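so my prof wants the structure for this chain in the tokens format not the other one, which i didnt know existed until like an hour ago. anyway here's the sequence
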Amino acid sequence: MTDAIDFKDYRLCEPAYFEDLKLGQRFPIPSRTMTDALFAAFQLASGDNHPIHYDIEYCKARGHKGLLAHAMQVMIQCAPGAGMFPHVVDESLVAMLEMSGRMLAPVYNGDTVYPMLEISELTEQRTTGVVTLASTVHNQDGVLVFEGIQKCLIRKRTPSED
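here's what i got, hopefully its the right format
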């Protein structure tokens, strides 16, 4: 016989709602080195078979020092689920609404990336709010290689009386 489990005992942090979030609040995501295995996994999952991502000689002939990461492979390093943000909004998260971004510099096989999410805008609504997360990825040299945004719909603890 087992005792009933209380899943609240397994929370990584206290749940937050829209009212609890602050402009400039940051959510670092653990660094990751872009390895052969990650390149192969992304190629398999995406179906992208362009040689710029797996043929070193093709890359060198085009002036690249190594295999070039696909832009979407870099973008996914900012997946909120890889850090603390979804644990913070665990009970209040309604949906991911939007994501976009742009590459600013190449990411190569062997580079280590450092993703960060930062609340850049809070748009209040009656029962929810939209949280805009500025998403950035720097490489091991401190170069900003990617920037973008993600917007999430978050419940309010106390709906407005509008």
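also thought this was worth mentioning. The chain has a mean pLDDT of 93.
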